[in-house]
Amino acid sequence: MVISLNKCKKPLIGLFLLWLIAMVLFTLFRNKTVPTFMGGSIHTYRISKKEHLQPVFKITGKREDEERFQRPSKQSALRLKYSFEDFINSTEKPPYIHILFQSPKDVIQAYYAILKEAS
User: Buried b vs exposed e over 23-42: b needs ≥16 C-beta within 10 Å?
Assistant: First the structure.
């Protein structure tokens, strides 16, 4: 018994499309309680049990790898031309940065001034 594919082509395509639609609908409506944002699921539950909360690391004295995170040249920090207060606009309306930079070095110093204040 030989089955001709020409006879079964339309029903197979129809079944495949129905299966595809069913899978898309299943994934969309599978979990209504978890919202999606930019393709990812947002989980709103929080871990409140103390036994699940652990510190990432414990500092007991001087760490052996602490030297890695210091400035490689061991020199003091550069004196920055700008400070974070230079970029605060009292009206809180755009443009937030009202300073025009003259060189790329000024932009980098302003960037590091903002990072310094944030840390």
Answer: eeeeeeeeeeeeeeeeeeee
